[in-house]
Amino acid sequence: MSEFKDLLKAAKFVTFLTGAGVSTPSGIPDYRSKNGLYKREKYDFPPEYMLSHENLLKNPEIFHDFTVHNMYFPDALPNIIHKKMAEISNDKGAIVTQNVDKLHTKAGAKNVVEFHGNLYDDIHCLTCGKQFDYKYYMKDYIHHEDNGIIRPGTTVLYGENINPKNVEKAVEYVKKADLLVVVGTSFKVYPFAGLLNYASSDAKLVVINKEDIDIDSSGLAISDDAVNVFSQL
């Protein structure tokens, strides 16, 4: 902990790379843990298919049911991790997140790249483009004026490309950092997991995760609950 504090203090620009483990303390389930979203067996298809562009178009009712009951947590509040990251990044850094829950933004963070988009912005009809708010979407997936399918926000589904602007900005923040802090992610999803390839050779790396992850072992690894870690900052 003391080494991490020293690194944060000395850093000129800190980039946080975050995943689902940052939001689990706020009551949002992760994906790949033993109790995560991808371990549930209620549906006939694997979650990767349930959250795919193909499923959205072929089985919009099933897609909607899965998304509303497994992905939306509008009452969730930022936890100490989000709050401390917002404080640090607003002072001298940025956050690049895989999460689609907007909790980093709710915590007040200003320099945030939502790499996979989010569930709450730009909810629209695929036929005419009309905008809806998430409260409407949680009740219905059909735009009854033209019978179009409504899709959930800017979220990147399986089978879709990442927004190039998000990739560009994320790479910029990684290149700029002299301290990279990876928190709450298995680092198995690409291209997000490939962002570290753009890090400066002089940048320091800190990994905070309950379980070991397969990335450069030369950095500082803290095997602990991120809530415990960020509560001490």
By DSSP, the count of extended strands is 10
Query: What Rg do the Cα atoms give?
Result: 18 Å
Strand order of the largest sheet: 3-2-1-8-9-10
> What is the number of helices?
9
Strand portion: 15-25%
**Name of the level-1 CATH class of the domain at 1-27 and 78-119 and 162-233:** Alpha Beta
CATH architecture call of the domain at 1-27 and 78-119 and 162-233: 3-Layer(aba) Sandwich
CATH topology of the domain at 1-27 and 78-119 and 162-233: Rossmann fold
Uncertain parts: none
What is the averaged pLDDT score?
92
The level of helicity is 25-40%
Q: What can be said about the biggest beta sheet?
A: 6 strands, parallel
Pfam family, one: SIR2
GO molecular function: histone deacetylase activity, NAD-dependent; NAD+ binding
InterPro entries: DHS-like_NAD/FAD-binding_dom, NAD-dep_sirtuin_deacylases, Sirtuin, Sirtuin_cat_small_dom_sf, Ssirtuin_cat_dom
Protein name: protein acetyllysine N-acetyltransferase
Describe the structure.
This protein is α/β, with parallel strands linked by helices and 233 residues long. The chain has helices at 2-10, 47-50, 53-58, 60-70, 80-92, 103-106, 134-139, 164-176, 226-231; strands at residues 14-18, 93-97, 112-114, 123-125, 131-132, 142-143, 148-151, 179-183, 204-208, 220-222. Strand 6 and strand 7 form a beta hairpin. The longest helix has 13 residues, at 80-92. The N and C termini lie close together (9 Å). GO terms for molecular function: histone deacetylase activity, NAD-dependent; NAD+ binding.
